[in-house]
Design goal:
It is an enzyme of class 3 (hydrolase). With about 475 residues, the chain is an alpha+beta fold. It has two domains: about 160 residues, Creatine Amidinohydrolase, Chain A, domain 1 (3-Layer(aba) Sandwich), CATH 3.40.350; about 300 residues, Creatine Amidinohydrolase (Alpha-Beta Complex), CATH 3.90.230.10. Helix content is about 35%, strand content about 10%. A four-stranded mixed β-sheet has the order 1-4-5-6. Strands 7-8-9 form a three-stranded antiparallel β-sheet. The longest helix is centred in the middle third of the chain and has 24 residues. It is globular.
C-alpha cells in the first residue's frame, strides 16, 4: 500500500482527531468525552465469498484513519487513536502476496497503539459510532455498542462540523480527483466522433480513471437520454443529432471525489435549438458560480439558478409570464426539478449517510415543494467548503406528459397551464432531452475557485473537441 507522504498523513490525521475531540468535549450535553469507534467495513461478496465487490472503506474511517484498510476499526479518545485489526492470514500470501501487518498500518495512520480485533470488546463500552450499511459490519457494531441516540447525534454533528471545511490535505486530494476527471471528459469528447454507442464513450472516460489508479466516485451517467436524471444504462447507439450527457467523476485512492457534468453534441455541432437551451443552462451555471462566496446562503444560489433558467425560457418563448412569478408558482421546476448541487468531499454527496444533519443547517428542514424538496444543501457557505454547481434543463415525459403531475407541481387544476407553457414553441425543442453543466467549486476566503475550470464550458470549445479538433 503506497502512501505518498506518510509523515504528513499522520500529522493531518492527528489534527483532525484533535478538532473532533475538542468539539465533543465542548458539546452542551451531560454526556461528553465519550470514546468514538469507527469501522472501515467489510468486503461484500458479489456472488460467492471469494468474489467480492471492490472494497471501499467507510468515509468516516478514512477521514480520521487515512488508510483504506478492510475489516478494521479505530477507537478515538481525545486525540489518541487505537487500531483494531487482525494480521493477514499467513495462507493468503499464496493468493495475494505479502500484505502489510497490523503494526505497519498503525504506523501509517499514526496510531498510538494497535491490537487484534477481539481486544476491542473490552474497550467498547460507553462509546459512540456511525452505523454502516453493510449487514455484516452493522451486526458487529450493534453487538458491541448499544445505540445511544443522544451520543450518536452529538457525534454526527461533531463529524459534520469537522468535515464541512476541507483542510490542505483534503484539497490536494480533491484537486487530483478533479484533474483526472477533466482529462477523462476531454478524452470522452475527443472519442465521440468515432464512437457508436454510449458504452464506447464510457470505456474511454473510465479508462482514464483506471490509468490514473482511480475508480469511479459514483456510477457514471453517460447517456443520450439526458432526461433520465440518474441513467445507468449505456447500451444505446449514439447518432448525429443526439446530445450526450456525461456525469462522471474520479475518486482518488484515498477516497476523495470529483463530480463533473458536461453535455455535448454527438455530431460535433449543436443544433440551433440545442445551442439555445445550452446557453440558458450555461447562464445559470455561470451566475451561480459568480455568486459563491462566504456568507452566501446556498439556497439563494439555488434560487438564482431557478430565476436564470426561468428568464431564459421566457426569452425563448417556452414559458410565459414574468420570471419571478413563474418561479413563485414552481413553473421552472417542470424543466429543472432538482437542486443546484451538494457538498463534495470524501463522498460525492458528502456525508449524506448522516442524512440532512450534514446538508442542512441545524433548525432547517426540507421543503415539501416539488424541486426545492430535492435541494441537498441548505447552509450558509463558509471558506473551505467544496460544493457542486449543476443547473440543468430536462424534458421529462412523466412530468410534461402528465396533466395531473403538472397540476400538482403548479398547484393548479389539471390542464390549466396554457398561460404558462407555450406547447407549440416547446415542440420545436424536441431534440433537447436533457442538458446539465456541473463544476466543483471551492469557497475561498472572499470568493471561490472552480477546481474543474480546466474543462471549459464554452459551446465553441466543446464543438471543436467533439468534431475532431484540438
Amino acid at each position: 500500500m503506497q502512501i505518498a507522504n506518510p509523515d504528513y498523513l499522520a500529522v493531518t490525521l492527528r489534527s483532525r482527531r484533535q478538532k473532533l475531540a475538542k468539539l465533543l468535549a465542548g458539546a452542551s450535553s451531560a454526556t461528553t468525552d465519550f470514546p468514538v469507534i469507527l469501522w472501515s467495513g467489510k468486503p461484500s461478496p458479489r456472488n460467492f465469498p471469494h468474489n467480492t465487490f471492490p472494497f471501499r472503506a467507510s468515509s468516516h474511517f478514512l477521514y480520521f484513519g487515512g488508510v483504506p484498510l478492510p475489516d478494521a476499526i479505530i477507537r478515538l479518545e481525545g486525540d489518541k487513536l487505537e487500531l483494531y485489526a487482525d494480521d493477514p492470514d499467513p495462507g493468503s500470501v499464496l493468493w495475494h502476496g505479502q500484505m502489510p501487518s497490523r503494526d505497519d498500518m498503525a504506523r501509517l495512520m499514526g496510531a498510538d497503539a494497535a491490537f487484534p480485533k477481539a481486544a476491542l470488546a473490552e474497550k467498547a463500552s460507553d462509546a459512540a459510532t456511525i452505523l454502516l450499511p453493510d449487514r455484516a459490519t452493522r451486526a458487529e457494531q450493534e453487538a458491541l455498542i448499544p445505540v445511544n441516540e443522544e451520543m450518536s447525534l452529538q457525534l454526527a454533528r461533531a463529524i459534520v462540523s469537522v468535515r464541512l471545511i476541507q483542510d490542505a490535505a483534503a484539497l490536494s486530494e480533491l484537486r487530483a480527483a478533479a484533474a483526472c476527471t477533466v482529462a477523462a471528459h476531454l478524452s470522452g469528447m475527443a472519442c465521440t466522433p468515432e464512437a457508436k454507442t454510449e458504452s464506447m464513450v464510457r470505456a474511454v472516460i473510465e479508462g482514464v480513471f483506471m490509468a490514473n489508479d482511480m475508480p469511479c466516485a459514483y456510477k457514471s451517467i453517460i447517456t443520450r437520454r439526458g432526461e433520465v436524471l440518474h441513467n445507468e444504462a449505456y447500451h444505446y447507439p449514439i447518432n448525429p443529432g443526439d446530445l450526450l450527457l456525461v456525469d462522471a467523476g474520479a475518486e482518488t485512492p484515498g477516497g476523495w471525489a470529483a463530480d463533473v457534468t458536461r453535455t455535448w453534441p454527438v455530431s460535433g455541432k449543436f443544433s440551433p435549438t440545442q445551442r439555445a437551451i445550452y446557453d440558458v443552462v450555461l447562464a445559470a451555471h455561470d451566475a451561480c458560480i459568480a455568486s459563491v462566496r462566504p456568507g452566501v446562503e446556498y439556497q439563494d444560489v439555488h434560487r438564482l439558478a431557478c430565476h436564470t433558467i426561468a428568464s431564459g425560457l421566457v426569452d425563448l418563448g417556452i414559458l410565459l409570464g414574468k420570471p419571478e412569478d413563474l418561479v413563485e408558482m414552481n413553473a421552472h421546476a417542470l424543466f429543472f426539478p432538482h437542486g443546484v448541487g451538494h457538498l463534495l468531499g470524501l463522498d460525492v454527496h458528502d456525508m449524506e449517510d448522516l442524512g440532512d444533519i450534514a446538508g442542512y443547517e441545524e433548525g432547517r428542514t426540507r421543503s415539501d415543494r416539488f424541486g426545492l424538496c430535492f435541494l441537498r444543501l441548505n447552509r450558509p457557505l463558509r471558506s473551505g467548503m467544496v460544493v457542486t454547481i449543476e443547473p440543468g434543463f430536462y424534458q421529462v415525459p412523466s412530468i410534461l406528459n402528465d396533466p395531473d403531475r403538472r397540476a400538482s407541481i403548479l398547484s393548479r387544476p389539471p390542464g390549466d397551464d396554457a398561460d404558462i407553457i407555450n406547447w407549440d414553441i416547446l415542440a420545436k425543442f424536441a431534440d433537447v432531452r436533457g442538458i446539465r453543466i456541473e463544476d466543483d467549486v471551492l469557497v475561498t476566503a472572499d470568493s471561490s475557485e472552480v477546481l474543474t475550470a480546466a474543462l471549459p464550458t464554452a459551446p465553441e470549445f466543446i464543438e471543436q473537441i467533439t468534431s475532431g479538433g484540438r
